[in-house]
């Protein structure tokens, strides 16, 4: 047998940790990255609406929470959550949880006792290039230029969004599927094929679909996340 540089045969390769790794079935958001939901009904807190730079809602909220005020600001970006399996060649990737703001460019800021000049100055702080350090674009206000706080109806609306997010009702699910529905496969070797839904196994998050292959019906099992309803 041919020998390598150190006198060893070429068939002496050892399995690396990557070879022995087990791909998790589900990867939820880490607590550090998950959106923080405040108590919207905190007594004495007044809520205001801010606009942010594109795709900077969560970063802006985190930056506002770090402002050294006593008591600190409350910041809330209503989010929705979705589980997706990323496509990467033919590799079987884990199902991952993603979050995204429900209202692009907007976040809500809670100020104990209402907006003051000190709080307003802290929120409007700018860097040497004149950009807002908290990634804010503006604060919605009245005609006189002062920030306009939300009324009771607005606060109740935000509280409903926060409660839905905390209880898991903000999770996004695809269109409901029914037996005999026409579906399109979005993953696997039969990707982009159209099939008929035969059965659903909710416990395993799988479905049985019937494809037409070479003129005859063939049933296969596939994950629910790899199906979409044909309109």
Automatic annotation (TrEMBL):
<dbReference type="InterPro" id="IPR043425">
    <property type="entry name" value="NusG-like"/>
</dbReference>
<dbReference type="GO" id="GO:0006354">
    <property type="term" value="P:DNA-templated transcription elongation"/>
</dbReference>
<dbReference type="InterPro" id="IPR006645">
    <property type="entry name" value="NGN-like_dom"/>
</dbReference>
<keyword id="KW-0889">Transcription antitermination</keyword>
<dbReference type="InterPro" id="IPR036735">
    <property type="entry name" value="NGN_dom_sf"/>
</dbReference>
<protein>
    <submittedName>
        <fullName>Transcriptional antiterminator NusG</fullName>
    </submittedName>
</protein>
<feature type="region of interest" description="Disordered">
    <location>
        <begin position="1"/>
        <end position="36"/>
    </location>
</feature>
<dbReference type="InterPro" id="IPR008991">
    <property type="entry name" value="Translation_prot_SH3-like_sf"/>
</dbReference>
<feature type="domain" description="NusG-like N-terminal">
    <location>
        <begin position="46"/>
        <end position="153"/>
    </location>
</feature>
<dbReference type="Pfam" id="PF02357">
    <property type="entry name" value="NusG"/>
</dbReference>
<keyword id="KW-0805">Transcription regulation</keyword>
<dbReference type="GO" id="GO:0031564">
    <property type="term" value="P:transcription antitermination"/>
</dbReference>
<keyword id="KW-0804">Transcription</keyword>
